[in-house]
Design brief:
The chain has helices spanning 16-27, 39-51, 66-79, 103-131, 152-172, 194-197, 207-218; strands spanning 8-11, 32-36, 56-60, 85-88, 134-139, 177-184, 228-231. By secondary structure, the protein is α/β, with parallel strands linked by helices.
């Protein structure tokens, strides 16, 4: 895929891995639309992306709410046009032993990490099918392949996302739409680990490592698709 002028959407694209993906796609020539729950984070991200020379637009969006997602889709098509690339990156983590995990926290993780990609993909997929091309990228996690203590909600959501993406791949591949799922290991962001963000963990991945990997998979010839890819620190 040629990324120049290929409109891209990145959910959760205002911080961490998300803004790194938006910056990498924009630097490769894609106009980018980002969203986050709050207007302040969107405004800050757009300023940062503009400073990197990226053509970006953005608006608040709650990916767990169907009406909010549809409004975001309409905003994207109105301001940029029909997207060719969708990156489902928005995600949250709530970590606790099972007996200490509240039903509300469990539901919030599943709603953002699994219902969110369903709603966003459902909103943008028809235009990709009509165009006969596109790419949908899911940012999952190695927690989608493994479990860890205190991660019942998060691991369940990411295991579910892998299953969702596998089924979607078979559903849309004949429409020339690629479905790509990346599973990063430890990444140096504030997500779930202030120590990781402060650089106190050994050899964690950087957000740009994940972003560059996604760009590399997208720029393969259209006949080739990396359906799932694990990204690990070389020497953690």
């Amino acid at each position: 895929m040629d990324l120049k002028n290929a409109i891209a959407v990145v959910t959760g694209g205002t911080a961490g891995i998300g803004i790194a993906i938006a910056r990498a796609l924009g630097s490769a020539g894609s106009p980018v639309a980002v969203c986050s729950r709050t207007e302040a984070r969107v405004t800050s991200a757009l300023k940062s992306l503009a400073g990197s020379g990226v053509h970006a637009v953005g608006t608040p969006c709650d990916v767990t709410d169907a009406a909010s997602v549809e409004a975001f889709r309409d905003f994207v098509t109105r301001t940029l046009g029909q997207p060719k690339i969708l990156v489902n990156n928005a995600g949250i983590g709530r970590f606790a032993p099972l007996e200490q995990m509240s039903p509300d926290d469990f539901d919030a993780v599943l709603a953002t990490n699994l219902r969110g990609p369903f709603l966003v993909t459902r909103a943008f997929l028809p235009s990709m099918k009509a165009a006969g091309e596109g790419a949908i990228v899911h940012v999952a996690s190695l927690a989608g392949r493994n479990g860890f203590e205190g991660g019942t909600a998060y691991c369940a959501s990411k295991h579910g996302l892998l299953g969702f993406a596998k089924a979607l791949m078979f559903e849309v591949r004949r429409s020339n739409i690629r479905v790509i799922t990346v599973c990063p290991g430890s990444v140096a962001t504030e997500f779930g680990s202030p120590e990781r963000a402060a650089g106190k963990t050994k050899r964690a991945l950087h957000p740009a490592d994940v972003a560059d990997t996604i760009v590399a998979t997208l720029t393969l010839p259209d006949r080739a698709m990396v359906s799932e890819l694990d990204i690990r620190p070389t020497n953690p």
